[in-house]
Amino acid sequence: MADIKTKAQGLDPNARARNISKLVEPTSNIYETVAIIAKRSKQLALDLKHELNSKLEEFAVTSDTIEEVTENKEQIEISKFYEKLPNPTIIATEEFLNGEVYWHYTDKRRNDRR
Fold first, then answer.
1. How far is CA 40 from CA 48, 60, 67, 92, 102, in A?
2. φ and ψ at 10, to 5 degrees?
3. Which of 43, 50, 40, 30 is nearest to 96 (CA)?
4. Residue 43 covered by a domain
């Protein structure tokens, strides 16, 4: 899988109107399409969260007292970078429209339709 940050940096972070007909083409059902995009969005959000937390931990400063709060410029810059990334739902929608999302049905009846 390609790096999420690299894919997301080229995307417009603003929400925009979509052609419903084009979204529905692969599944023939808008509800299935929305469910697929939502599941992929959750995956992306978790991946981004884990990645952000691991990067922030690299620069974490441990202190013995709770009152002592230090400002770490590296952590601030990393956080700002992740804040500017598009919403995971926007990324998932783009992936779906580009045919980069794979899904399958666990119910045999649905496999026959596809």
1. 12, 30, 40, 6, 9
2. -85, -5
3. 40
4. yes
- 10 Å CB burial of residue 86 (0-12, 13-18, 19+) is buried
> Per the domain annotation, does 65 fall within a domain?
yes
Instruction: Quote the number of domains for the chain.
Output: 1
Helix (H) or strand (E) holding 51: helix 30-58
Range of the domain at 94: 29-113
* 55-103 pLDDT tens trace: 888 777 666 555 555 667 888 888 888 888 888 888 899 889 888 888 8
pTM: 0.73
Assess if residue 3 is contained within a domain: no
